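Q: Fold this one first, please.
A: Sequence and structure below.
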Amino acid sequence: MIAFLKNRLILTGQIPAMFLIVAICPALAIAQEESDSAEKTEQQQREQQFGKSLTNKVLVGSFTIDGQADQPKEERYELKKVTRLRDDLWVFNARVKYGKTDITLPIILKVVWAEDTPMISMTNVTIPGLGTFTCRVFFYENRYAGTWQHGKKGGHMFGRIETATTAENASSENTGNDRPKMP
């Protein structure tokens, strides 16, 4: 059988093509590894920049409630530190203020990427002291926007990312609401 295939390849002139394929395959594999390595490095840089861009920042914005014609309500999230925990999980040490709620705690959130744009992706995540939420929130340059759901209520959220003042950092550290990290 091997002799037949060898003779057939020689007679039809396919040996040069076969050698070309054998010679190119390792080169393609090396090029793919280099491309994968470059993509990993780019992603690591994006992740590092994301953490820095949200550390000591304040998300100042508004949220709407579906079905209500009221003006958007104010919201405020003071971010002391944002760091990657592992894989796509990040720790947001945050002071959350909306309505009568004002609490500081570490929140573990899933962050996924749409090319160069990070997005918080929560589906039925319980945050101690706040409740269970679903949301998708994108961050780009100095803005954030997304959707949220809390029980039967939901809506949109949007705003600016601002640098925290020293007073804001001190107040978020001294609220007494710090809790252990979620598992």
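Q: Good. Now the second chain.
A: Here it is, same layout.
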Amino acid sequence: MKNRILFTVFAIALMYAFTACNNAADDKQYSSVDEMVSFAKENITSISIDEFHTEFAEAEHLTIVDVREPEEFAISCIPGAINVPRGVLEFSIGDKVSRGETVYVYCNNTNRSALAVYDMAKLKYSKAVMIDSGYDVWQEKYPEDVQLEPSGSEENKPAASHGGGGCGG
């Protein structure tokens, strides 16, 4: 009887240990893509396009990630951006960007970038920031800061080694 009680207590403790770190937001289900994007936008950091433009104009170097598809990126981008398409972000971001740096993320209209920044936080990119309004507005407001036909998104240098690999780094 005593062994059975100890086994039950151990089993309950083990179940608690496996479920205690479970984030309820990870289990959230959405009735539409718009709802999912809205949820992501409510739970990430963003910067206005004008504030970002000021930082862009003043900084020597910024880490900027364009999560549009390669075909979109090949037409034009924010100068200095690297292309990591949203569809492969989780698999590719670790080879291109270090976790410790501030990373500015954009797409055409903020839907993909919101989801990207939300997922980057799960991969321990705590300084990922969505550029609000997106690239469509950037092109209209700041045409002088548009790079046409950027060369070789594949040639972007990988991030410095940060050890650990996976999402544990």
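Q: Anything worth noting on the second one?
A: The beta strands are 45-47, 63-66, 76-77, 82-83, 103-106, 128-131, 147-148.
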